[in-house]
Structure formats: C-alpha cells, structure tokens
Amino acid sequence: MQPQSIIVEMPSWIADEMARRPSLYPELDARVQLVIEFSRLNVEHDTGGPFAAAVFEEESGRLVSIGVNRVVPTSVSSAHAEFTALALAQQKLGTFDLGGPGMPAHQLVVNWRPCTMCFGAVIWSGVRSLALAGSGVAVEEVTGFDEGPMFDNWIEELNARGIEVLDNLDREGALKVFRYFRDSAKIVYNARKG
Amino acid sequence: MQPQSIIVEMPSWIADEMARRPSLYPELDARVQLVIEFSRLNVEHDTGGPFAAAVFEEESGRLVSIGVNRVVPTSVSSAHAEFTALALAQQKLGTFDLGGPGMPAHQLVVNWRPCTMCFGAVIWSGVRSLALAGSGVAVEEVTGFDEGPMFDNWIEELNARGIEVLDNLDREGALKVFRYFRDSAKIVYNARKG
After folding, report:
1. Which of B56, B76, B188 to mutate to test the interface with A (most CBs of A within 10 A)?
2. CATH number for the domain that contains residue A132
3. Does the residue A17 lie in any domain?
4. Which of A61, A135, A151, B47 could bond to A25 as cystine, CB 3.0-4.6 Å?
C-alpha cells in the first residue's frame, strides 16, 4: 500500500509571519528582502533548509504565495522552496499555469538561483519573471549543498521561454543566511551522499 | 491567505489496479510494462498526462510506489510522474533519501526520459538506477510536449552521481501510448504556451 496523496505541509509560523506583514510589495527590493528573511526564519525555526521563494503579481507586487524548503520535515526530496512556492500559488489560484489567459504576469523571487530541478520547475510554472538575490557556486561553497549540473546559458534558456531573469539583487544578504545555516550545523541532505 | 499544505492526490483507480497485481517484479521488462500500462490507464481514465513512473527495490523487484502525471487535475505544474512516484515512495518509507544507510538500492522506472525538472528530481531522490522505456525527441514530436533543455551528457551526469541508466527498454510500447494520447486530443499543458 502506498499513500493516496502526497502532502507537503508548510510550517505553522508562515501563516503568522504573513499575517503581520503587508500583502503588497511594489518595490522589487522589498520582495527580495522578504524571501531572504523567510530563508533565515526557516533555519531559526529548524523547519527546513535555508531557502525561501515567493510568487508575486509582477506589476502590483501582490504577494500570492511564499514557500520554504521542506525536504527533511516532509520526507520529499523535491520539496525545495521554488517547488513549494509555485505549487502553493497554483493550488491557491486553481490553475497549473501562472501565465494562463487573462491572468496578471507572475514573478518568482528566490534567495538563490534554482538548482537543476527547480530550473525546470520554473519553466513549467508559467511565471514570466525570475528574480534572484544571487547565483553561482557560493551557495555550494558555504553550505555544502550540491545544486546539480547547470546550463551555462541558463539565462538564455529562460529568456527563450518568455521568462526574464533579474540576478544579484542582494548576494550578500542571501550569503549571510547561508553562513548562519552553516554555523548552526544543520543537516545537509543531498541524497546522493547517502 | 495561502493553503497550509500542497496536496497532490493520486487517482482512485491506482489503488484498485495495484491491488489486483503482483507486488514483486523480479524481471526488468515486467517493471517497464507496468509503467507503460499505467501511462495508458492515466489517459483512459482522463486523470492526467500519458506518463507513469514507479519505484522498485532494485534487487528484489518489490514495488514501492507508482505515480502518474497529475499536472492538470491537481493544478501543480511539477506533478510529473517522476515527482509523484518518488514522493510517494519517500513519504511511504518516511525518508527523503531512497539511498540512505541501511536501505536496499532503489530503481526508478519511467515510460520516457525525464524532462529537465525531473532529471534534477532523480538526482536528489537517492535512487541508484533509472530505467527508461525510451528517450529523445520522439515524445515531443508525437505529443507536442516540451521536455525543456537537456544536457547532451545527461547519462554521464547521472552516472557521476552513482545512478546507472538503462534506456530503450521498450520505445515502441511507450510511443504507442503517446500516439493514443495524441489521437484522443487531450490538453497539452505546457505552461509556457499559455
């Protein structure tokens, strides 16, 4: 017998933190600071890895969803922050396509460049914009996480599919959380090392 | 407000079909035929795209989980068959790492080569073997699905992470289902076309 459903639960602090914050983020920097702060909160609460992502309506800045890494607590190796934020937005809006007809353009904001898997997840999601605090091997050097093979031309591949990429919006802010995570000595869960 | 959890439900026919089948598949060909059959059943029942995947204990052939594509019915663009099969196995076994200490080696069997996203998902899952009915652009030519950019050296990338790849185990059998899907004119849900 296998489970009837896959269930990926968000930690309870997310709803509390969202309730006491604005629902509109017109400025891009405020969107980036929100995901960096949630990446830190996920480490502080010991509810997953140091990653957070959020879906916004690109123009208005309305926050649609925010997700954090939930790999270890939910026993799902794909429960990266990009996956959780995108799926929460899609289930909230009732569509697998965040770029569907009649919808406002959506932007995914992440505290670091997506790994190989999440790079693909971004393409399938329907978002029109990907905004990143930073990218590159620094995350692997600091945390020990493996991000998998990555296309040298990843930005062009996204652009070719109608997704703009904004990078290096706050590298140092993101790296501070990765260092905090490293120093708190949490589990680094790359399955392939198992 | 966003949902507290992401829920990806399997169609009810899966449990029925599993109940009347063996739980052991010592022969690789029987594993491949099982996923091809489930890919067809998913189209027949109109419960998702023409893709199925299953996790087996590699040596004994014990079936751990079987998942199908659930993108449209669950409004989750990442709910590809590889994702669902891997997450079902991981939540059933209570671990994000199917290659963890003391566990038997696990094999993922799929009715076609994983897309970009699922290529990454396989790496993070902890499986030691990936067995495919077929690979290449034929699926895109027949169904219109975009599989995303793919590494030319995808097999070497998986091998380098301790995952063996067995390909072309039944191309024609898999393609038959893709043609059946095409001829039944189901939705092709690539978000980027939206």
Report:
1. B76
2. 3.40.140.10
3. no
4. A61
Q: Please give the Cα distance from B191 to B194 (Å, whole number).
A: 5
- Is there a contact between B191 and A121 if contact means CB atoms under 8 Å apart? no
In angstroms, rounded to a whole number, what is the distance separating the alpha carbons of residues B152 and B139?
17
ipTM of predicted complex: 0.94
CB A177 within 8 A of CB A133: no
Give residue B189's pLDDT. Answer: 59
Residues of chain B with pLDDT under 70: 185-194
pLDDT score, position A55: 98
Measured between beta carbons, the chain A residues lying within 8 angstroms of B18 are: 2
Interface test with A, best of B1, B2, B10, B80 (most A CBs within 10 A): B2
d(CA A126, CA B194): 7
Q: How far apart are CA A30 and CA A22, in angstroms?
A: 10
Tell me how far apart the alpha carbons of residues B173 and B37 are, in angstroms, rounded to a whole number.
9
Give a yes or no: residue A13 inside a domain. Answer: no
CB A15 within 8 A of CB B4: yes
pLDDT at A33 over 70: yes
Identify the CA nearest to A39 among candidates A189, A146, A157, A170. Answer: A170
Q: What is the pLDDT of residues A13-28, one digit of tens each?
A: 999 999 999 999 999 9
- On whether residue A132 sits in a domain, the answer given is yes
Of B78, B126, B157, which is closest to A194 when you measure between CB atoms?
A: B126
CB B158 within 8 A of CB B123: yes
What per-residue confidence (pLDDT) applies to A145?
Answer: 83
Please determine, for residue A194, whether its predicted confidence score (pLDDT) is greater than 60. Answer: no
Residue type, A86: L
- State the Cα–Cα distance between residues A137 and A125, nearest whole angstrom: 25
In a domain, A191, yes or no: no
Q: What angle do CA A161, A165, A166 make, to 5 degrees?
A: 170
